[in-house]
């Protein structure tokens, strides 16, 4: 999994819009994220279409339900050819273990399976909102670290977090436990609904294993130029 490429969040409303977008990159292999908006509009085949167009796919459906249901969902998703799949750590260790079982069942003994990464605290969640709405009294980083430890105990490949928490997670888990970080904004870019944001170059210094970038690329006047600028900063 080549995470020297920023993962582009393809938050667009149709398969056609997704295909039109990746065609702008003329032969360059991208790492794209198919999230709820695109997956629910275009169906599972959009993942296959992206694979056939030569791109790696992060399937971001943030599974969060009882273990049996998540196991079935993961089984259904296992053969699409995605490299990464998200679940919510808040669903618990048994739920994350069930996701891994479902993937194994769906892929068969030899089949390639996506790596599972667990959402910790969404990057749109501020420390104040976490305290007020989730009634979590410890500092936000403690909550994220707790989810990371539970995710590691479940056997998943890593977590999704803000770059602000990446170094502490690396220390609390291991170097190879993935820290995928959305909430990326180039200097001066509109933050929008994100709460915990970091620039691409700072994310690299802060021990992120991979960055996820949506609007700063997808809604840029020149998405190819924006992508290459962010990629250069991330790899600097
Ligand atoms: O799982 C994710 O990718 C995710 C987790 C998280 O905590 N925060 C977060 O922003 N994301 C996703 O990352 C992308 C960020 O998009 P932009 O804010 O447009 O860069 C969106 O597709 C979100 O769904």
UniProtKB/TrEMBL annotation:
Keywords of this entry: Decarboxylase, Lyase, Pyrimidine biosynthesis
Sites where the protein binds substrate: 11, 33, 60-69, 123, 185, 194, 214-215
Pathway note: Pyrimidine metabolism; UMP biosynthesis via de novo pathway; UMP from orotate: step 2/2
GO cellular component: cytosol
Gene3D superfamilies, per database record: Aldolase class I
InterPro entries: Aldolase_TIM (IPR013785), OMPdecase (IPR014732), OMPdecase_AS (IPR018089), OMPdecase_bac (IPR047596), OMPdeCOase_dom (IPR001754), RibuloseP-bd_barrel (IPR011060)
Pfam family, one: OMPdecase
Listed GO MF terms: orotidine-5'-phosphate decarboxylase activity
Domain Orotidine 5'-phosphate decarboxylase span(s) in chain numbering: 5-230
GO biological process, one term: 'de novo' UMP biosynthetic process
Top enzyme category: lyase
Annotated catalytic residues: 60, 62, 65
Signal sequence region: none
Enzyme Commission number, as recorded: 4.1.1.23
Catalytic activity: orotidine 5'-phosphate + H(+) = UMP + CO2
Function: Catalyzes the decarboxylation of orotidine 5'-monophosphate (OMP) to uridine 5'-monophosphate (UMP).
Family membership: Belongs to the OMP decarboxylase family. Type 1 subfamily.
Listed NCBIfam families: PRK00230.1, pyrF
UniProt name for this protein: Orotidine 5'-phosphate decarboxylase
Gene: pyrF
């Amino acid at each position: 999994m080549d995470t020297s490429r920023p993962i582009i969040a393809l938050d667009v409303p149709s398969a056609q819009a997704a295909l039109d977008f990746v065609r702008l990159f003329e032969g360059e292999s991208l790492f794209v994220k198919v999230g709820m908006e695109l997956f629910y509009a275009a169906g599972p085949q959009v993942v296959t279409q992206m694979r056939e167009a030569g791109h790696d796919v992060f399937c971001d459906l943030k599974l969060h339900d009882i273990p049996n249901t998540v196991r079935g969902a993961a089984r259904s998703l296992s053969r699409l050819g995605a490299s990464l799949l998200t679940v919510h750590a808040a669903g618990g260790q048994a739920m994350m273990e069930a996701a891994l079982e479902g993937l194994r069942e769906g892929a068969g003994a030899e089949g390639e399976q996506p790596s599972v990464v667990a959402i910790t605290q969404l990057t749109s969640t501020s420390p104040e909102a976490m305290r007020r709405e989730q009634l979590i009294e410890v500092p936000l980083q403690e909550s994220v670290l707790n989810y990371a430890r539970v995710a590691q105990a479940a056997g998943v490949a890593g977590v999704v977090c803000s770059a602000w928490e990446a170094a502490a997670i690396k220390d609390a888990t291991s170097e190879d436990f993935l820290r995928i970080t959305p909430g990326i904004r180039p200097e001066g870019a509109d933050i929008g609904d994100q709460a915990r944001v970091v620039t691409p170059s700072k994310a690299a210094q802060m021990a992120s294993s991979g960055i996820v970038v949506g609007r700063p690329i997808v809604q840029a006047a020149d998405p190819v130029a924006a992508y290459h600028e962010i990629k250069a900063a991330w790899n600097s």
